[in-house]
């Protein structure tokens, strides 16, 4: 991780919507509606972000330095000038990795306690 452990850990645990948005942006820059669609598809419809939840999360994530508004845009023929595109920052990636590791440890504890199936 390129950032201090304490700077990263102060963001943990991540809100569910935030973690899903970071996972979505790990693959590509996306605009809001594309994020909503990706999260719904990725979760098999189990998590459907409302526009309000998405944009409140994005606003907070921008302030925290987890994401930034992307400067590059698709060709104008394939784009709507009102759209804002977002990308994950190196800090956001560090925080997402730390959250995934935290969740992995939690699942290991659940398995060793008999609350989840799989190897302990």
Descriptive keywords:
120 residues; mainly alpha; Arc Repressor Mutant, subunit A
Structure in words:
This protein has 120 residues and is mainly α. The chain has a domain at 14-89: Winged helix-like DNA-binding domain superfamily/Winged helix DNA-binding domain (Arc Repressor Mutant, subunit A), CATH 1.10.10. Helix content is 54%, strand content 8%. It has five helices and three strands; from the N terminus they run ααβααββα. It has helices spanning 5-9, 16-27, 32-42, 51-64, 90-112; strands spanning 30-31, 67-69, 85-88. It has a three-stranded antiparallel beta sheet with strand order 1-3-2. Helix 2 (16-27) crosses helix 5 (90-112). The two termini are 26 Å apart. The mean pLDDT is 91.
The rounded distance between the terminal residues' Cα atoms is 26 Å
The main sheet orders its strands as: 1-3-2
- Shape descriptor reads globular
Helix and strand run: HHEHHEEH
CATH superfamily of one domain: Winged helix-like DNA-binding domain superfamily/Winged helix DNA-binding domain
Helicity, in percent?
40-55%
Q: Provide the CATH topology of one domain.
A: Arc Repressor Mutant, subunit A
Low-confidence stretches: none
Under the CATH scheme, the architecture of one domain is Orthogonal Bundle
